[in-house]
Design a protein that fits this description.
six-stranded parallel sheet; three-stranded antiparallel sheet; 9 helices; 2 domains; L-2-Hydroxyisocaproate Dehydrogenase, Chain A, domain 2; single chain; alpha/beta
């Protein structure tokens, strides 16, 4: 019998994630949404794509959390999306209620599941899911750093006219305006990026990375990014399912790493079958460490809304 991965929320992020997971042909997929017929219709459409694309993944959908029973991984995407002029922090109160209820519902059906949180503001929603679930931090992981790092790598590759595969980088910290793209450790084919770009141009790319989500919102008007976020969540799920021990930047509550405690921020972690197997501490420059501390403080301030 195949493992099951459940996706909560059948909007753009959730439905695209369900498609990517089905096309991996590794697991069966359950798609759940509160809107009657939405998850059912999209799941049936994905199921019928199987013979064309060439996958045997079973895809089911509905409003009943019973569909998620026995899930190895549950990805929570449900919540309100940002609209123009909104920050991620504006979403705290509305999405906290949604994520809290979803977390309780999925664990009632899948108490052994690993939770991947995608709902914004991501760091705070990961903290909320930790509190509600009572699970160890290794099993409640936020998807943030992979997406932010992908944006940074994309912009650098375009600027330098090289393949994205040649760009190695990490973005740490909160998933928002205070995120910390690491300049010191970023390389292109092993060459430090600081030798390839003028400092002023590098800082412009850093700022565009921080504004990456808002830039897409400004174009879409009525929605937010979903192709890249779903790809990032898929990479996390695949690393867990295949027990890869892959090092990826993800949001986790720190317990002394990087000199921080009791706050969820993005840092490199080793992902495997049990979730986070290790928090990786990379070397930071003094300025990067200061930025990470400021970013953590910004997350704490937003999390204070939770009480």
């Amino acid at each position: 019998m195949r493992d099951k991965v459940s996706v909560i929320g059948a909007g753009n992020v959730g439905a695209t994630l369900a498609q990517r997971l089905a096309e991996l042909d590794l697991v069966d997929v359950a798609l759940v949404d509160v809107i009657e017929g939405l998850a059912q219709g999209k799941a049936l459409d994905l199921l019928e794509a199987g013979p064309v694309v060439g996958y045997d993944s079973q895809v089911s959908g509905g409003t009943d959390y019973g569909l998620t029973a026995g899930s190895k991984v549950v990805v929570i995407t449900s919540g309100l999306a940002r609209k123009p002029g909104m920050s991620r922090d504006d979403l705290v109160s509305a999405n906290a209620k949604i994520v809290g209820e979803v977390t309780s519902a999925v664990l009632a059906s899948s108490p052994e599941a690993i939770l991947v949180i995608v709902t914004n503001p991501l760091d705070v929603m990961t903290e909320l899911a930790l509190r509600v679930s009572g699970l160890p931090r290794t099993r409640v992981i936020g998807m943030a750093g992979i997406l932010d790092t992908a944006r940074f790598r994309s912009f650098l590759a375009a600027e330098l006219k090289v393949s994205v595969r040649s760009v190695e980088a990490y973005v740490l910290g909160g998933h928002g305006d205070s995120m910390v793209p690491l300049r010191g450790g970023t390389t292109v084919a092993g060459i430090p990026v600081g030798r390839l770009l003028a400092p002023e141009r590098l800082e412009e790319i850093v700022q565009r990375t921080r504004d990456g989500g808002a830039e897409i919102v400004s174009y879409l008007k009525t929605g937010s990014a979903f192709y890249a976020p779903s790809a990032a969540a898929t990479q996390m799920v695949e690393a867990i399912l295949l027990d890869r021990g892959q090092i990826l930047p993800c949001a986790i509550r720190l317990e002394g790493e990087y000199g921080l405690r009791g706050v969820v921020v993005g840092v490199p972690v080793k992902l495997g079958a049990d979730g986070v197997e290790e928090v990786i501490e990379v070397e930071l420059t003094p300025s990067e460490r200061e930025e990470l501390e400021r970013s953590a403080e910004a997350v704490r301030e937003t999390a204070a809304v939770l009480g």
